[in-house]
Design a protein that fits this description.
The chain is of the alpha/beta class. A seven-stranded parallel beta sheet has the order 8-7-6-9-10-11-12. A five-stranded parallel beta sheet has the order 2-1-3-4-5, with helices on one face. Helix 1 packs across helix 10 and helix 4 packs across helix 6. The model has no long low-confidence stretch (mean pLDDT about 100). The chain binds NADPH dihydro-nicotinamide-adenine-dinucleotide phosphate and ligand LL5AMS7Z. The site of NADPH dihydro-nicotinamide-adenine-dinucleotide phosphate has 29 residues, from helix 6 and strand 7. The site of ligand LL5AMS7Z has 4 residues, from loops. Belongs to the D-isomer specific 2-hydroxyacid dehydrogenase family. GhrA subfamily. It catalyses: (R)-glycerate + NAD(+) = 3-hydroxypyruvate + NADH + H(+); glycolate + NADP(+) = glyoxylate + NADPH + H(+); (R)-glycerate + NADP(+) = 3-hydroxypyruvate + NADPH + H(+). Its main location: cytoplasm.
């Protein structure tokens, strides 16, 4: 079996060595421009179109959880990957724990008013503030998939009221489930901390806009862990100015790296990280890919296949 690998920034040799160890019968090689030799599987992130075009592959694996970039490439070049070739993505493979760490630490930061205490420190001000109450700190998670479900689980341990919003209804103990567009308004009403873990699709792009933000509880917080294009950045700034939003923590931006001219950099109530909320962990990812390829070869059922019509 032949496997081709392409990632613009990973340590390719490390991946080739580890993949060869995990799949000893496979010949694994880095794809380079001009390589038209046959291959059975392709492991990719932001692949050049000619890497995949015209190949009769058994499957393609995206080396991340979100497949928005490869699906948008496919929109522009539908012949790059015919529908008959399944596309897989990474399901968790170590990302859920990272998302849990990020979400729990940020929610507790806001709940314990460390943002306010930090602002007071800037003014050398020693003043005890009123404590927030858990019952006023309802957390709403947009997206109740692999990562959203794990984030909900970790926040449950802290006793916050929890709710989630997805396309299909969930029945998770202790989490109120809202499903579909018709229930989005009820989901937002009373939500104090909004955590975004939606995929980037034509239905979700721009979803965090002025109309959505206005439906949140007053003095709400936004934690965007999914994609920058979910948020209309001008509307976010407006909601911060009006006081509707007390703070925002952003890991992702509509343009990355965030341009130096963005007003988000200097905003005192916006914190940010450079798209590191959950990075691909090579060992776990290789383990998942090797297991999935082995099952595909044996005709066994697998998980992680992207529904290209749905967009995630
Ligand atoms: N910042 C970072 O470092 C990282 C960001 N990400 C982002 O996180 C996203 C989520 O990942 P993951 O949890 O694995 O994805 P999943 O596909 O497992 O979950 C997606 C969830 O979103 C819901 N959803 C999709 N479309 C809609 C819609 N139109 N209306 C309501 N709900 C919708 C789905 O509903 P249903 O359950 O009904 O299908 C599902 O619950 C990724 O797509 C990626 O963009 C991922 C990894 C790292
Ligand atoms: O943003 C990262 C991903 O895996 O998706």
């Amino acid at each position: 079996m032949d496997i081709i690998f392409y990632h613009p920034s990973f340590d390719t040799q490390f991946w080739l060595d580890k993949l060869s160890q995990a799949l000893p019968d496979a010949r694994v090689r880095e794809w380079k421009p001009g390589d038209n030799e046959p291959a059975d599987y392709a492991l990719v992130w932001h692949p050049p179109v000619d890497m995949l075009q015209g190949r009769s592959l058994k499957a393609v694996f995206a080396l991340g959880a979100g497949v928005d970039s490869i699906l948008s490439q496919l929109n522009a070049h539908p012949d790059m990957l015919p529908e008959s070739i399944p596309l897989f993505r990474l399901e968790d493979t170590g990302m859920a724990l990272q998302m849990q760490e990020y979400a729990v630490s940020q929610v507790l930061h806001w709940f314990r008013r460390f943002d306010d205490y930090h602002a007071q420190k800037q003014q050398a001000r020693w003043q005890e503030l009123d404590e927030y109450q858990r019952e006023d700190f309802t957390i709403g998670i947009l997206g109740a998939g692999v990562l959203g479900s794990k984030v909900a689980e970790s926040l449950q341990a802290w006793g916050f009221p929890l709710r989630c919003w997805s396309r299909s209804r969930k029945s998770w103990p202790g989490v109120q489930s809202f499903a579909g567009e018709n229930e989005l308004g009820n989901f937002l009403q009373g939500t104090r901390v909004l955590i975004n873990l939606l995929p980037n699709t034509s239905e979700t792009r721009g979803i965090i806009n002025v109309s959505l933000l206005n439906q949140l509880a007053d003095n709400a917080y936004l934690l965007n862990l999914a994609r920058g294009v979910h948020v209309v950045e001008d509307d976010l700034l407006q909601a911060l100015e009006s006081g509707k939003l007390k703070g925002a923590m952003l890991d992702v931006f509509s343009k990355e790296p965030l341009p130096a001219s963005s007003p988000l950099w200097a905003h005192p109530r916006v914190a940010m990280t450079p798209h590191i909320a959950a990075v691909t962990r090579p060992n776990e990812a290789i383990d998942y890919i090797a297991r999935t390829i082995t099952k595909l070869e044996q005709g066994e059922p697998v998980t992680g296949q992207v529904d290209r019509t749905r967009g995630y």
